[in-house]
Here is the input.
Amino acid sequence: MTPKNAKPSTKGKHEAAASRDKAKPPQGESEVDAFVSRARSWHAEIQKLRSILLDCGLDEELKWGKPCFLSEGKNVALIQPFKEHCSLMFFKGALLEDTHGLLRSQGENSQSALRLEFTGEGQIKPTVVKSYVKQAIAIERAGLKVDFKAKDELELPGELTRALERDRKLHKAFHALTPGRQRAYVLHFTGAKQSKTRTARIEKVIPRILAGKGMRDR
Here is the structure.
């Protein structure tokens, strides 16, 4: 039995406070600093990307549990550590000119975001990454918007339309894909501003389409 005059235990309160303090970054350290220091995978890649982004004059915050980089308060890019790669996602990637052919789809249902994927620190070339980041900053500062199409409204680029008209098997295979897979391909193709780049992208994935596979299927 608890004695009548005994004071209530504060052990639980102290433990809860200690737990909260432990979750907070040390004084003088930002939430992004804490994220980087805790990163168990892709640590060097995250640090290198962060350094490049900050060197481009962007601000940083922790959003959605990941380092987010902003220009004048507007989201520009997000570092995303995955199991198979570390990526730099651009919120308006669909508006970027893929000058190096490196942008990848963020997902079958994404109409705006595209990302750069890295599997090693040596793949992160500052000059190349900065070329994409500077484009993204200019797009945000210009107030450009991604034209979101209705889910049932899929506008095919002319290069794809002509390819489908020339090849009946390709036409049948493409239209047999799920709407999400079709959309992912179209976003990948139209992410390139130059016709020759769009054509090259289409030719590269024809075997995948004929096999009934989506952009990210194995």
Notes: Confidence is low (pLDDT under 50) at residues 16-23. The radius of gyration is 23 Å.
